[in-house]
Amino acid sequence: MRPNKLTFKHWLFVFVSFGFCQTLYAQQDENQNWGQWRGPKATGASETADPPIRWSETENIRWKTLIPGLGHSSPVVWGDRVFVTTAVKFGPKFEPIHDNAPGSHDNLPVSQRHKYVVLSLDRASGEILWEKVVNENIPHEGSHHSGSLASASPVTDGNYVYAHFGSHGLFCLDFDGNIVWQKDLEKMHTKHAHGEGSSPVLFDNTLVINWDHEGQSFVMALNKNSGKEIWKQPRKEVTSWSTPIIVNHDGKPQLIIAGTDRVRGYDLATGESIWECAGLSANVCASPVSENGIVIVGSSYDTRAMFAIKLQDAKGDITGSKNVLWSRTQRTPYVPSPLLYQGKVYFLRHYQGILSQVDAATGAEEIGPFRINGLGDIYASPVAAADRIYLTGRNGVSMVLSHSEMPRMLSVNRLDDSFSASPALVGEDLFLRGKQHLYCVGTSSPEE
């Protein structure tokens, strides 16, 4: 089917229909917090936020703060605090160290030492309250030219913030910027030396780190208060960048990880494998989403795959079984993760401006897909709130679509930055982390 077009020049109507197994996280008040990658339910959606529809460098920008260094990690928000991570080059330059991993290409050579930094900002003003250097070193690998050495998003429970720099350390900090504990997980060797990016996930007292790379992969559960290992399970998968999710099924939390070739479900308490399903591609980046006892995963690299898994009675290898509710091999996501909003799944083809929408339970695609012209490459995952869909491109352009029976383009917004990090939505605020600045888009102060 030929994609329909949405352009800068015309406010076009798009003919799409947008329409209790609950994903678990650090317990969050949705009105004030976006405490982890992909938000309160790890779906990319907020049921309570109501951010602006239109903005520019001169309209609806509450504040704009320069962030040192480079990072593609998304901001997390808790109460009056915003947290981001970054990697900052410093010191004299030296002869570039080029990655010699098999298949290396388009990578940035390492020619300086780096500081790995966690920042806390005041939500109302954008003032940097503290800037904590948690490690300094010469990176053993660089990253793809479109990546960064601070791509994993932090997670917070309202008392502590957990910052994961992969090979460069895992750190627990209090809200005053003091390091409570830290852990060295040794060195990760990623495919093509393209960099690291899986974010930590948190439930109750358990913090989970997934470590898929070209060496011995594993997944590890830690006590969030002490950093002590609870369990560690080896994994057969190689490099992936997907962030796990935690889902409550039949009263028990399951850890679900999408990796190269297959997706697996683990008992969060013990780390024991519950089920697995083959069918994904290599180089999995997109994170799973879950709702109503259904888990949806997608990938697009050497092959294209997307499918939905029913958790009820899922045991052992469920590949090709009745637990696979639907599957597709067209226009599947690569870098941006899917958005799950009010029973519908929205996803972008690879990292391009072709948007699809399917029913989460059936996979039915009633109309579409839709070509979204003007966004450029899209690394940021789509988000949703207040019956609106927000899409952001690396060229500084964001588009807002209505979420209704007959949706339409609501706005095209441009900022003077490049955006690879996914947005955060809290209250009346939209937080956009660019290559240079962190923006707070909003029309009133958080206290009003």
Number of strands: 38
The CATH superfamily name is YVTN repeat-like/Quinoprotein amine dehydrogenase
* Multimeric state: single chain
CATH class, anyone?
Answer: Mainly Beta
For this structure, the CATH topology is: Methylamine Dehydrogenase, Chain H
Strand order, largest beta sheet: 2-19-20-21-22-26
Strand content: 35-45%
The dominant shape is: globular
How is this structure best summarized?
0% of the residues lie in helices and 42% in strands. It is an all-beta fold.
Task: Supply database-style keywords.
Methylamine Dehydrogenase, Chain H; disordered N terminus; mainly beta; single chain; five-stranded mixed sheet; 0% helix; six-stranded mixed sheet; 448 residues; 38 strands
Description:
The protein has no helices and 38 strands. It has 448 residues and is mostly beta strands. The protein has one domain (4-441): Methylamine Dehydrogenase, Chain H, CATH 2.130.10. The strands form nine sheets. It has a six-stranded mixed beta sheet, with no helix packed on it. The protein has a five-stranded mixed beta sheet with strand order 1-31-30-29-28, with no helix packed on it. A hairpin with a 5-residue loop joins strand 17 (217-223) and strand 18. The protein is globular, with a radius of gyration of 20 Å. Mean pLDDT is 91; it is low at 1-28.
Topology, element by element:
Blueprint: E1 4-6, E2 23-24, E3 33-34, E4 61-66, E5 76-78, E6 81-90, E7 107-108, E8 113-122, E9 128-137, E10 143-144, E11 155-156, E12 160-164, E13 170-174, E14 179-183, E15 201-203, E16 206-211, E17 217-223, E18 229-235, E19 245-249, E20 252-258, E21 262-267, E22 273-278, E23 289-291, E24 294-300, E25 304-310, E26 316-317, E27 324-328, E28 339-341, E29 344-348, E30 354-359, E31 370-372, E32 383-385, E33 388-392, E34 397-402, E35 409-414, E36 424-426, E37 429-433, E38 437-441
Parallel strand pairs: 1-31, 22-26
Antiparallel strand pairs: 2-19, 3-5, 4-38, 5-6, 6-8, 7-10, 8-9, 11-12, 12-13, 13-14, 15-16, 16-17, 17-18, 19-20, 20-21, 21-22, 23-24, 24-25, 25-27, 28-29, 29-30, 30-31, 32-33, 33-34, 34-35, 36-37, 37-38
